Amino acid sequence: MKFRIEEDLLGKMEIPVESLYGIHTQRALNNFKISNSRISEYSIFLQGLILTKKACAAANGEIGTLSAKESQMILKACDKILGDLPDYLPSFPIDVFQGGAGTSTNMNVNEVIANVGLKINGYDAGNYQHLHPNDHVNKSQSTNDVYPTGFRVAIYFYINKLIESIISLSDQLELKAIEFSDVLKMGRTQLQDAVPMSLGDEFRAWATNLKEEIKNLENSRDLILEVNLGGTAIGTGVNAPANFSEVSIKYLREFTGAPFVRSPNLIEATSDCGAYVMLSGALM
What we know:
Blueprint: E1 3-8, E2 11-16, H1 23-31, H2 43-63, H3 68-83, H4 85-88, H5 103-120, H6 133-137, H7 143-179, E3 184-189, E4 192-198, H8 199-223, E5 226-227, H9 244-256, E6 261-262, H10 266-271, H11 274-283
Helix pairs in contact: 2-3, 2-5, 2-7, 2-9, 3-5, 5-7, 7-8, 8-11
């Protein structure tokens, strides 16, 4: 196997020459051998992260913190990965359990986007002077705002798929309610037979219960739409342009088709897990 040499603040490492990930991912592979679950198993989460990176690249391009060429390289790389995501999943090999609040995952995504962008433009992987994982792909960002934003994008997509399935199940139960409207059975209370009812009545009650849960899921899902993108490390927006949050979230709405909004207080939003608790309760 042939290798290329990459270097970070800790030193140099050999990376398989054809690998789309880089030194930060390799360090994570070496340091976090915790479980048998890999981030590649959660493609909807990777989709959310890459869409977030795409929104940030578009914002940096509009604001001028990235050149038009750098921004377009990232945008095209994101589109390429999103369009062929199953083919790129092997490039996301790190353990789902890791230290650093998801920094290894963030850097894995940064490196893959950078190297896909380089290859599209005729450069070798690792030729980072043309497109750098940290200086360009991660421009104006921190793991602490990108990771939870990507996570929320993924949750929003996932809940929508779940709601679609529940609606389908509810519709089928309604059809069965009609089919079984003439089938008599005993209704029960206090663990005993009580009064007559139709089997159709029972199926319709189940359908109604699911419809009520759909409303609960939709309300809880919408709490996820408030994001801290642009808050960077702790919510103060350090190392990001003053209007980066608004512009990046504008593009996030465009690219996801979902009505994401900026949290009124990015410091609070960076540590707040309340929406996750509410959604977890709705799922249970």
